[in-house]
Amino acid sequence: MTTFNTRLIRLTAVILAGVSLLACRSDYEFAYLYEDLPFEMEEVRRPQIPSREVNIKDFGGVGDGVFLNTEAFASAIDALYEAGGGRLVVPTGIWLTGPVTLKDNIDLHIRPDAVLLFSTDRDLYPIVETVFEGLDTKRCLAPINADGAKNIAITGGGTIDGNGDSWRQVKKSKIAPSQWKALLKSGGFTNAKGDLWYPDSSSFRGSVVSDAFNVPQGLTTEKEWNSVKTYLRPVLIGLKNCENVLLEDCLFQNSPCWNIHPLMCKNVIINNITVRNPWYSQNGDGLDVDSCEDVLVINSSFDVGDDAICIKSGKDADGRRRGRPCRNLIVDNCIVFHGHGGFVVGSEMSGGVENIKVSNCRFLGTDVGLRFKSCRGRGGVVRNIFIEDIVMMNIPTEPLLFDLHYGGKSAVEAAAEGASPFDVPYVEADETTPQFRDIYIRDVVCSGAARAMYFNGIPEKNIENIVVEDCQIVSTKGADLRYSNGVVLKNIDITQSEGLGYSLANCRNVTIEGCTDASSSERPEVFTHNSEVRID
Question: Domain extents for the chain?
């Protein structure tokens, strides 16, 4: 009887806790995102900002596209901050300015007919210590920036334009001949091959002292850093160590480098925004969520020149030393028109990535749909990723890609180099060995891909426990899995026009259940090389 009573008390407590939780969430606007969420995650709520309101015109601002409003923005934000916070209204007009630094309890409210346009004057952007591509380094101050701020927002439905064309280098192969000709006439420099344009000598010098990942090496003095200033292109929105952040309704476009970069932030809502960069924009990422926790990315659209929605957590030794995983994220109801990847994890994931749900998204013409990338030397574990209800079309490479041999090139560029060998040399695993495991993908439809899926793992730590089920893929080639362990492919329908639907090399414990391909209406024919596979 005692045992029975104890169990009854515990059951009652659980039921009451559930009722309490439902009551708590009944008035929560994003409660629907937490239904059946496969991991624990705090409710992400809007920042609490006072109702106080000021207008940028009251601080000497002029929205004619000519007057420089840097001091007006600084004065308005300082005044609001001293008063305890509030909304800074940017009304109709074109508001030319230098960097804008947000402070606690500030909502930068850009009205729908307003454009916040950032100046091309390099002197307005000091070089500051930051993190870029996962490494501790220096870059120019972001046009909109905050460090350690709480309760900040960018709202209102207006446009934020980073004037990025004045900063970016351009590859000849990415633009039309007439555009290239016009670019050369505008000035600037080209490399020795004549296929890469730089806006000025500072940008060109930066390329000489940088590795393939855009971070300068060997610079020690202030003079040396200033000599490559244009190369140190800022992200458009740089938020570091901030808490309670809202980006809503606005258009973010034409960034010098990455567009939106929340770094080590907590409690972030990104809702109903549009992110645009020219498709030729070098490093023109849409959103890079970097070592953040408790993040919603919802109802938004992306059309960019690099990865669209990208999850990161530092690179190599710098990322492992920081030790800040990116975790507890929900991505829902987003659309990507162009980008190197629709939803991407890596390649900078040395601090780890975990607890992410991606649902109800469309990728229309991205180079890759779901892109997981890293390489030896990174370290870090990516796990507990749940993806469902994704629609893709016109994917030049794969709707699903795991690549543990990433070398800085886009998936299209890597595919153009040809097939990799089946067998890869073994390297002893250590803290620098990256790992992707416990990833669950279902209900994906893709019409038009080069290859159905590609798992390109490493022998010392296979891609592990990946479950892909209930998917329909029309592609030129079938699925290609290498150095993978414990993969389950269930109810996958691949309609390929060349070769077999499924190819496995150096894989273990792979289950292919209820799958079909164009070669058979029932049991698919599977190519294997040094692999263990069960076909049901």
Answer: 170-230, 307-535
